[in-house]
Design a protein that fits this description.
By secondary structure, this protein is an all-alpha fold. It has helices at about 1-15, 20-35, 40-55, 60-65, 70-85, 90-120, 125-150, 155-175, 200, 205-235, 240-265, 270-290, 295-315, 320-325, 325-355, 360-385. Helices cover about 80% and strands about 0% of the residues.
Length: about 400
């Protein structure tokens, strides 16, 4: 049944990416209607992230009780409901209200799907599935842009994506018989193994290093994505309209890199892929930092994207092997929470620091995140319970 289920999971990863970039694409058309400063998008983003962190930490408990299929279906349905809420919102406080189920749905499905794929499919599928996330994240702004260009309100853009999410939620419900049940044969609600508490998870060898690895990864990825355009304009002197397009090279690098990573995993282990990604990202940051001209800076952005590409999916895919299948859902839950925490904290903190110093510090901040990520990843390899030949 697993091969039949795979197309549904691919569609689910596209669904994960669809809403992620909608707010950024729609906000220039939204904030004026609500009569709030442009910076208020950060408040909505942080509310979504808070819900995502909370539901990621609860993913182990939910998946043990309901199974990955039900968690995925309910979470996508919750996200669809939240998007319908966004599409009907006429005040800023309503957006804040709907941001909570938006984040709660996103965190559970992210952790449940990643663990299910790590347990049941080869590493190449994890890379290609995360490439599908990139496709979804690219489609979201395209749909919103198409709606706005046609003269419609941003409400219709959210409504269109909500409809797509609702259709996928229905497909997931219909596919439930295909999913391997979260409960083993003979288990009942009374004898399902208890979910681990956060304190218990932190005592598992390797848990803290892997959490720091994910924190640093998302700090690196999101800080690059948010501030690359400003860096190119203010530090390299590239016109703003060109810099906006050039900054997209980073995301193209991630998407193409994950497509290529799927093939490389046929020859290389997950850990070798992570090390290869770290080396490529280091070369990209160096090209961004050194005074080698505009083309070198643009090549650097592509290299950083290519370097980031294998790290996230390969560390996730190795989780059951490294920590054991019995702990993988709990570990992936805290990995997701740590990732979203890095997304929440570091990009705005860098923005604040750059305001008072210089945006030219961007490559140094990225190098710092990369070095710490490399160190915690190597510590993970040494301290985890199960060791594989590297």
């Amino acid at each position: 049944m697993l091969p039949i289920l795979l197309p549904v999971i691919y569609l689910s990863f596209i669904s994960l990416g669809l809403p992620d970039s909608l707010l950024g694409a729609a906000w220039p058309s939204m904030y004026g209607q609500f009569q709030v400063p442009v910076s208020y998008a950060g408040a909505i983003s942080m509310l979504i992230a808070a819900g995502t962190i909370l539901s990621s930490l609860q993913s182990d408990r939910l998946t043990r009780r309901l199974g990955a299929g039900w968690v995925t279906a309910v979470s996508v349905g919750m996200t669809a409901l939240a998007l319908f809420g966004f599409s009907s919102s006429n005040s800023f406080w309503m957006l804040c209200l709907w941001a909570l189920p938006y984040g709660l749905g996103a965190g559970s499905v992210d952790a449940a799907l990643n663990n299910y794929v790590a347990l049941h499919y080869a590493s190449r599928h994890m890379s290609w599935l995360h490439c599908m996330w990139g496709l979804g994240a690219s489609l979201g702004p395209y749909i919103m842009g198409h709606v706005l260009t046609a003269g419609n309100s941003w409400h219709k853009g959210y409504h269109s994506v909500a409809l797509l999410q609702a259709v996928l939620a229905l497909m997931l419900v219909l596919s439930l018989p295909l999913w391997k049940k979260g409960r083993e044969a003979g288990q009942t609600a009374d004898n399902i193994p208890q979910a681990l508490t956060l304190g218990q998870i932190l005592h598992i060898p390797g848990a803290k290093p892997v959490m720091l690895t994910f924190f640093c990864y998302c700090a690196l990825e999101q800080t690059t994505g948010l501030w690359a355009s400003s860096y190119l304009t203010l530090q390299k002197g590239i016109p703003a309209e060109q810099a906006a397009g050039f900054a997209s090279l980073f995301f193209i690098g991630i998407t193409v890199g994950r497509a290529l990573s799927g093939f490389l995993t046929l020859k290389l282990s997950d850990w070798q892929m992570v090390r290869l990604g770290l080396a490529a990202a280091a070369a990209g940051i160096a090209a961004l930092l050194l005074p080698l001209g505009d083309y070198a800076a643009l090549a650097g952005l592509i290299l950083i994207g290519l370097g980031c590409a294998p790290i996230y999916p390969c560390v996730i895919h190795a989780t059951p092997e490294r920590f054991g299948a019995e702990h993988s859902q709990a570990i992936i839950g805290v990995q997701m929470a740590s990732a979203y925490l890095g997304t929440c904290l570091i990009p705005p903190l860098f923005g604040l620091a750059a305001t008072h110093t210089s945006i030219g510090l961007l490559p140094l901040v990225l190098f710092s995140a990369l070095i710490l990520m490399a160190a915690t990843h190597e510590q993970l390899l040494r301290s985890s319970r199960k060791h594989t030949a590297i």
